[in-house]
Queue: 4 jobs
Job 1
Amino acid sequence: MQADFFARKRRQSYVYFSVMVVLTLAAIFVTEYDVVKGISSIPKAAEWTVANFYPDAKAMKKLPDILDTLLETVLMSIAATTVAAGLAFLFAILGSRTTGIGGPFSLVCRGIATLFRNIDVAAWSMILLFSFGQSVLTGYFALFFGSFGFLTRAFMEAIDEVSGSSVEALRATGAGYFHIVFQSVVPSSIPMLLSWILFMVETNIRHATLIGILTGTGIGFLFSLYYKSLNYSSASLVVLVIVAVILLIEYVSNSIRRVIL
C-alpha cells in the first residue's frame, strides 16, 4: 500500500515536471528567445554591473535627499497599511464565518475582499493614475486598496482559525455579539493579526518602489530619474539604501513576531 502511494506520487512528479518542460519550451518558441545568447550574456552583464553600478563620492552627496525620499516612501507604506488594516478588521469581523452576521452582507464583504485582493498594486496604480495623476495620493491609494483586500482575507482566516472554540463557548453562556468580539475574538486573534500587518508593511515598502516608478513619486521615481539620466552611481546608491532599509524592517518585524507569537 505504501509502495503504491510513493509510486503514484512519483508519477505525479514526472507529470508536473514534463508539463513545466513543455510550457518552458513553448514559451521559448513563441517569444523567439535565444537561450544560448541569454546565458552567454550573463558574464558580460555581471562585468558591467561591477564596473558601473556602485556609489562614488559624487553619489554620496545625494544621500540626504535619497534618505528623505525613502523616509517619505516608508511612511506612506506604513500609513496605507495601518489604515487598510483597520478597515480590513471591520470587514473581516462582519464577513467571518465565526463572527459574521450572515446572509448577503457576509457575501458582499467576502466579494469585495476577493476583488481588491486579486487586483495587483501595479494595476491599481495604473487605474488610479487616471483619477489622481502622478502624485503621492496615487501611490497611497494603490497600496491601501491592495493591502485592504489581502488583509481582509488574511484576517478572516485568522479569526476563523483562532477564535472558533472560544466564540462557541461564549455563545453557549448567552454572551452578546459585541461581548464576543471584544472578549474573545480580539484577544485571541490579535497576535496573528499583528503578524499579518507587519508582513504587509514589509511587502508594501517593496511595492512602493515599483509604484513610485509608475506614478513618478517616492524612491522609485528617484531611481528611475537617476537611471534614465545614466547616473548609475546614484541609482546604485538608491538600490543599496532600499535593500538596507528592507532588511532592517524585516529584522524588526521578525523580532516583534517572536515576542507576540
Job 2
Amino acid sequence: MAKHDIITIGASAGGVEALIVLLGGLPADLPASLFVVLHMPPTARSMLPTILGRSTRLEVAAAVDGEPIERGRVYVAPVDNHLMIGDGFVRVVHSARENGHRPAVDPLFRTAAEVYGGRVIGVVLSGTRDCGTAGLLEIKRQGGIAVVQDPDDALFSEMPQSALDNVPVDHCAPLARLPPLLADLVHQKAGRAPAEAQAPEGIVGEKVEAVESEFTCPECGGNLVRSGDGATLNYKCKVGHRYSPESLEDEQASALDAALWIALRTIEDTAALARRMAARAAERSQTHMQAHFEEKVRVAEERASLVRRALLGTSEGNGTSAVPRSKRAWRLPPTS
C-alpha cells in the first residue's frame, strides 16, 4: 500500500524562516517528494532554492514544467508562476492569480489532492490571510493529512489560524516539532479517500452550485461566479482569477485605493488647468469667464479635499487620525 510520499508546503510572510527550520530538520533519505509555495512579488528575483538548499541535505531546485517527480527532492515554485502537480510530473503554469498571488498555495494543494489523494500531506506555515485553507480542506476530503504550524509559534499567525478554524487538522505543532512529525508520517500507510470525498461533518455546509454574484473581478473587471461553501467559498472570474471572501475584500480595498489616487490626481489637474484659464481670462478682462473658471477651481479644490481625507484617513480640519475606512490602512502611492 502507498505511503504519504507527497508533501505540499505553503507559506507567506515569515515563511522563509519557517522553511529553513522545517527542511533543515528532515533526513536526507526521506522517501518523499516535497513541493513548496512561498508568496513572492512577481518582480522579485528569488534566491529561495539556494537559501533552502543551504539548510537541508535534500536536493532543492526551482520547479521546471514537465519534469518528473522524484523522491528526496524539493520542488520550489518559481516567481510569478503557479506550482501544480500532474500524474508523475510537475506543472509550472503562468495562469491567473488566486487570492491575489502567483504562485498561490491553493493550486498546489488542490492539484496534489486531485492526483494523489490519500498520499498527500498538506503543511501550512507562517503567513497572512487565508491562502491554503481551501486547498488543505481538499487534501482532507481526498483522504490526505493536514498539518499546521501552531499559530502561537508562527511569525504571522493568520494562515495557520485560518486553517485551524476551517479544516479538521490532524496535527498542529510548533515549528521545531514538524520535521520529526513529517518524517514519521511519511512512513505510515496512506488511507483511501472517502467514497464521495466529502468534508467532515460540521466543517463546511452542503455543496453549493456556482452562481453569478453581484461582484466584479478587481483585477480584470469580469463578472465573478460564487461557488463552494464555508472554507471552500470562493469567487472566480471567466479568465480564472479566484478569491476567497477575505482575499476579495483585500483586493477590492487595493483597487479602491488605486482609484482614489487616480481621482485625486485628475481633480488636481482639473483645478490647475482652471486656474490657468481664469488667469488668462483676467489678462483679457473677461470678467464673466474669469468667474466661471474660478468657480471650477473652488469646486475642484473641495472635491480634492474630500478625496485626500479619504486617502489619508484624517478628520476634517484638524489633521487627526480618523476611523479607518477598512481594516487595511490606506497606503501612499509609490514614489516612482
Job 3
Amino acid sequence: MSKVWFITGSSRGLGRCFVEAALSRGDRVAATARSVERLQDLVITYGDAVLPLAMDVTDRAAVGAAVQRAKEHFGRLDVVVNNAGYAQIGAIEELTGQELREQLETNLFGALWVVQAVLPHLREQRAGHIVQLSSAAGLMAMPLGGAYHVSKWGVEALNEALAQEVAEFGIKVTLVEPAGFATRDGKNPDPLANGHMAQTNPAYDGLRQRLAAVMSKQPSGDPAAAAQALLKIVDADNPPLRVLFGQGFYPMLQQVYAERLQTWADWQELSAEAQGAR
C-alpha cells in the first residue's frame, strides 16, 4: 500500500532525494521548502502525487497550516521526515547569541513544531512514522561545531523521549544520523568553507586548518543510495530508533563511547562519594 509523506527541506540535498525516491515508487508526498520553485519539475512529472508547500520551519503557524493542508489534500499522513536544517560553524568564543539562537530555531524548534503539528493526526490514525534527520554530530562533538552539535544533541534527546511517549499510539520514531554526503555538485558540503560561518578569531586559524584536513578525508556518501535506505526503514515492521547513514564516523563513535564508559568507570569511587555513599 502506498504511503503519504510529509518532508521538510525538500528543495535540495537529501530532502530532494527522499522526495524523488518516494514518488518514483508510487507514494505521495507533501514536499515543503522555503521556496517551492525548485519543486515545480516534480509537479510536472508526478502531478497530483506531489503537493509543494512553501514553509519555513521556524514559523510555527506556517508549519501547522502546511500540515493541515497536507492532511486535507491526501487524507492521511504516514511518514513525516524532519529534514530541514543547516550547520552554523564557529568556535564557542566566536559565536554570537543570535547565531546560536537561529541555529536552534531551525534545527531544534523547527523540528519540534513539525512534530507537535503532526502528532494529533498520527495519534488519531494510531499509526505513523516520524523520521528525524540528525547527524553523527548528534552523537559526539568536534571543535568549531558547537552550535550545530547543541542543536543535534537536542533533537537526539527530543526524539528519544518522543519514541517512548508515542509508542502506545502505534507511532514509530527513527533518528537518521548521516555522515558526509555529496549533496552539492557531487561533493561533500564543506562546512568550513561554505554557509553559516561565525566571524573568525585568528587564535583558532590553526585549529581550522587541522580540522579541514581531517574532514577532507571523510568519504562521500551517495544521496540517492541514502534515499533507498530510508525506504527500507519506513517499510520495516520494527525500524531502529537510531541508524547511521554512512560508515565514515563509525570507528570514531566506537572510540568516543568506549572512552565515556571508561571515564565513568574510572571515577566510580568519586561518584559514590558525591552521593554520600560509604
Job 4
Amino acid sequence: MVRSIDEVMSSPVRTVSPDTSLHEAAEIMRDADVGDVVVTRDNRIMGILTDRDIVVRCVAEGGDPREHTAEEVCSSEVATIPPQSGIRDAVDMMRTNALRRLPVVDGDRVVGMVTMGDLAQAIDDKSALSDVSSADPNR
C-alpha cells in the first residue's frame, strides 16, 4: 500500500523560466510527454503552465505562442504539497481547490508532480481513471 506522495509522484519535473515562449514550453511538454511545466524564477515556483493554458489563454484568443511567454498565461496561484505528505492529504487538497495536479515541494525546491491519475492508481489500480492514466499516450 502506497503511503506517501514521494512514492507516487513523477520526477523530474520540467521547469521553464517566466520569459520562456509558449511555443518553447509546448515543445518541452511534447518532448517530455507531459501536460504541464512549472514556471520558476531563482528555483522558486512562480506558477504552473498547462497545455490547456496555452490553448485557452493564448491560441484561442488569437495570440501567437512564439510571441507570448509562460509568465503571461500561467496560473500563479499554486498549491503545493511536501513529499512526505499522505495520499489522503493530496486528495483532500485537490478536492478542496479543484486541482488536477500538485507540485511536490521540498523546502523551496520542486521535486516532483502528483496528478489525479497518480492518486487514482495509488488508491484503486482497477478504477477507470487509473486505467486511463496508465494507458500509453495518444500519438
